[in-house]
Amino acid sequence: MDGTPNISSLPKTRSLTITKLKSLGIKTYFDLLNYFPSRYENYSTNAKINLAQPGEMVTLTGIVTDSKFQITRSGLKMQVFKINDGTGEIQVTFYNQPYLLRLFRKGMAISFAGTVDRYSNKLIFVPKEYEIGKPEKHTGRIVPIYPEKKGLSSKTIREKVFAALNNLPREFMPEAIIISNNLIKEEEAYKNIHFPDSREMIENARRRLAFDELFTIQLSSALIKKNWGREKIGQPLLTAGTADSIKTFIDNLPFKLTNAQSTVWQQILKDLLKDKPMNRFLQGEVGSGKTVVAALACYLAYLNGYQSLFMAPTEILANQHFKTLQSLFGKTTVKVGIVTGSIKEADRADIVVGTHALINKKFKMHKIGLVVVDEQHRFGVTQRSELKNKGINAHLLTMTATPIPRTVALTIYGELDFSVIDEMPKGRKPVKTFFVKKEKRLPCYRWINQQVDKLASQVFIVCPLIEESEVETMKSVRAAKKEFENLKLVFPKLNLGLLHGKLKAKEKDQIMNRFRQRELDILVSTSVVEVGIDIPQATIMIIEGAERFGLAQLHQLRGRVGRSDKLSYCFLFSESESGDVIARLNFFAKTNDGNKLAEEDLKNRGPGEIFGKKQHGYTDLKIASFSDYELIEKTKNAAGYFLENNDINKFPDLNSRLERYQIEEISQD
Ligand code: ADP
Ligand code: MG
Fold first, then answer.
1. pLDDT per residue as tens digits for the range 297-332
2. Same CATH fold, 432-591 and 243-272+289-400?
3. Cβ of 290 less than 6 Å from ligand 1
4. What pTM was estimated for this model as a whole?
5. Could you tell me if the CB of 286 is within 6 A of ligand 1?
6. Is the shortest distance between the CB of 260 and ligand 1 below 6 Å?
7. Domain map of the chain by residue range?
């Protein structure tokens, strides 16, 4: 695909290592080169033993003259070597690595990198890295440190990346763009992001690779937009003869549409009447009422004789939408069906609800005119091409509550038309949010007990884990199952339910129904309730281990309450004492605006820090940062200018990189 060899052809590599690399999604040399270091260590000072100073970070290279095994008084096992480089001799000590006594034989040349130390008037060296022979990749240079995943050590990854650098793909970026944007060559960039010649080169390399990433994303989306414009829908929908039914439907709703909902409905309506398929992205705060707007679109499709698909990210949410739509269409002839892993009631349904896997499920589809995708952020391209493969050329409406900063939206969703519901239904009150100190936990429980007693409040309690963790640093993190047992003792008179992802679909549905019907006062759960769940009478949300959630995620969780005109509360619990954590949670407590929270999430991850880390829910950038406005702007202009003045088909190398980007998107789902 990218023209580089498969990783199975890496020299001197165990098949277990290949398997582990593959489980990280690394299939080719080029994939491997796109696994970026999280930081670097500077071992570039090559010193002579006689001049080595305590405290210095250096690389020493010498011949092994002696080796022995020692045990310290406290029982630590040491492997001790003497190394001579012609200028002097130094003791090199390792702990608990007995195999080194076999590996380093007398007379061998070895390079060590680390810090020189003094021990009872003698210099000793406890290396962080070593390599046999002269310094090459692990010592004697700025050395990359990789995120260790799936049991792959940073050193193994470094070794393999080094080998992969021998097989780079051809430069794909048109010369003119390289020159006008002052970029270094791709080859140089990959070499220097992994094995930099200097600190300065790391930055040049990062900039080039970030440019590539943002440029290809924007070019892809511009191309999609261009091609989309040429597509024709089978038969445009018509309003003729439907207006009365639509009006009646709106009049029969249990509430009056907000202005924002009406505006967005008009935008959607305009799209639906065109002969080109709609590709619209609807963003609206949690609880702003997106479902009913989507329902209106489904209704118009129905009135024109078309079926709609309505997809949700989880079965729990699919079940909820099924019920919501059934009740919204209660006074009409619309038949709502559902198809999930566990239920199938879609015989002759006009709206079929299901999870995102719906497209691949077997049920009777007739004329599909509209596809609604709820709470998913990366869809468009993939879902639509899947639909097209099935011969479905439908309008597409995607919805999310995740606030997406404008710059980000323009970058990764440039091909979409945007609508925003920027107004909450009347009477909604901001959720009162508190960060609760440890010692206030009991009083907080007491208060909740009273609220349930007096006001019949219903409570969500969300835990970060299902089961307790064995990992030392996670032992204090509350797990739903154990917490459920705990809380039954704390609230002996209340009815509690437990919900998590490992329950069978039926059980999940039962628990949700009991909570919905007020048979349960408290629902203890994992973050399975994070998106979409709508139980308006629930007014209290407790989030355990709040520091473990991102701000956007916390905001989604908090959005499960405050969905009626009753005052709602959100309590954040955390065992963390870190100043940063406390500041972040306090910021969250006083901020109700999802957009502000999203911006803050972005700010907390500056460029350089994000190497290899997953960013928010929008999409995963590998090396660029959404907070790098300047580069986003530059790449956008470059992509636009390029498309205006060139025929992309004359640039096969660039074209195949774009495919690479799209293919990757699919595999992330
Ligand atoms: P979201 O935008 O988060 O998907 P929902 O569509 O689930 O929100 O709606 C949240 C709640 O608000 C639902 O209980 C819904 O019935 C109610 N709702 C929607 N629109 C209005 C409105 N205009 N006035 C009052 N309540 C509304
Ligand atoms: Mg929703």
1. 999 999 999 999 999 988 888 999 999 999 999 999
2. yes
3. yes
4. 0.72
5. yes
6. no
7. 40-145, 243-272+289-400, 432-591
